Amino acid sequence: MMNHLRNCGKFSTLVFADHSSGKLSKSTLKILNAAKLLNQQISLLVTSNDANSVVDQIKSSIPSNVVHQVLVAQHDSFKAPQADVLGNLVKQLIDQHGFTNFVTSTSTLAKDFLPRVAVKYAAQPITDVIAINNDVFLRPVYAGNAIAQVKSSDKVKFISFRPTNFEEIQQTGEKVTNIVQVKVENTKQLIEHVSDELVQSDKPELTTAKFIVSGGRALGSKENFKILDELANALGNTAIGASRAAVDAGYAANDQQVGQTGKVVAPELYIAVGISGAIQHLAGMKDSKVIVAINKDQEAPIVSVADYTIVDDLFKVVPELTKKIKEIKQ
Ligand SMILES: Cc1cc2nc3c(=O)[nH]c(=O)nc-3n(C[C@H](O)[C@H](O)[C@H](O)COP(=O)(O)OP(=O)(O)OC[C@H]3O[C@@H](n4cnc5c(N)ncnc54)[C@H](O)[C@@H]3O)c2cc1C
């Protein structure tokens, strides 16, 4: 690895790489495409206690005409990344190298540390950005019912992009070779990481899944939710989501919630099973390419955003649909 750091000049962008269990996340490939719209040289920041495998993936997938250099900050405290140490590191890099944009995805981690850095520059973070029009950032507000147009005069801009609104970067051409180790100067930790409770699932992650089957209150129990599992297995490569009512009732896990206070998704296919389509739910899934509603109420709000609606009892429709898909796939 090279061990010198290039000063990035007057206008440049630092993008924070998302990764998990040694794998570079697709969201990173998407927000790089978003960051390109800022028309500045891009540096990519990888923080980890062991960055080797993520850096290898970057070296084999990310073109040098997208990312000019990769900054690698390795430190034990990044084993379970904490907002305070991350925030200090980002400030250190901005001060040292004069980045004028700091970009993240809309991950939970970024929601935690982005404002912590922004406040040190008296800057207003521009979050949940879905598009840029010249120098105007577009971001949904009021549960997606209005789009705010934001212009910022902050000297350093702190921006989070919604990965679901951007395509992944093309992975063709020469790949980035400029890998630079950076020293983490301030490792003072005010937050103590106690433990992780990870939900084990053989299903794809909600925000990057191609297909999603989501269940609502109408499922009635955790046990009944399993019929969605069978439908998802029949479809293949399908994640399982839930409405907040289903999560609150304990039918599904917290991290399955789709919506304003859950995850924002935009899969190729979203099947809403026994979900009414409250405005807060629609805010998280209405950009899905094809929406199918299974609901016994023809007047349910979900019907107005659905491309196809099956008006019937879900306990009849879901097993039939599962059976048909299995037959077709045989
Ligand atoms: C600040 C705030 C944030 C929120 N954030 C979120 C969020 O992120 N995500 C979210 O989902 N909600 C969120 N909510 C809650 C939201 O307002 C709704 O209460 C919730 O989405 C309703 O969930 P549901 O559609 O599963 O239940 P319901 O609204 O009760 O709908 C159940 C649906 O199932 C249908 N049904 C019933 N039985 C059957 C059957 N046998 N077969 C077929 N269909 C049947 C009914 O016709 C109905 O349409 C939020 C609310 C607030 C106030």
From TrEMBL:
GO terms for molecular function: electron transfer activity; flavin adenine dinucleotide binding. Keywords: Electron transport, FAD, Flavoprotein, Mitochondrion, Transport. It holds the Pfam family ETF_alpha. Binds 1 FAD per dimer. It is found in: Mitochondrion matrix. GO terms for cellular component: mitochondrial matrix; mitochondrion. FAD binds at residues 217, 243-244, 257-261, 274-281, 295. It comes from the Eukaryota. One of its GO terms (biological process) is fatty acid beta-oxidation using acyl-CoA dehydrogenase. Its cofactor is FAD. InterPro entries: DHS-like_NAD/FAD-binding_dom, ETF_a/b_N, ETF_a/FixB, ETF_alpha_N, ETF_asu_C, ETF_asu_C_CS, Rossmann-like_a/b/a_fold. Residues 13-202 form the Electron transfer flavoprotein alpha/beta-subunit N-terminal domain. Belongs to the ETF alpha-subunit/FixB family. PANTHER family: ELECTRON TRANSFER FLAVOPROTEIN ALPHA, ELECTRON TRANSFER FLAVOPROTEIN SUBUNIT ALPHA, MITOCHONDRIAL. The electron transfer flavoprotein serves as a specific electron acceptor for several dehydrogenases, including five acyl-CoA dehydrogenases, glutaryl-CoA and sarcosine dehydrogenase. It transfers the electrons to the main mitochondrial respiratory chain via ETF-ubiquinone oxidoreductase (ETF dehydrogenase). This is Electron transfer flavoprotein subunit alpha. It comes from Paramecium tetraurelia.
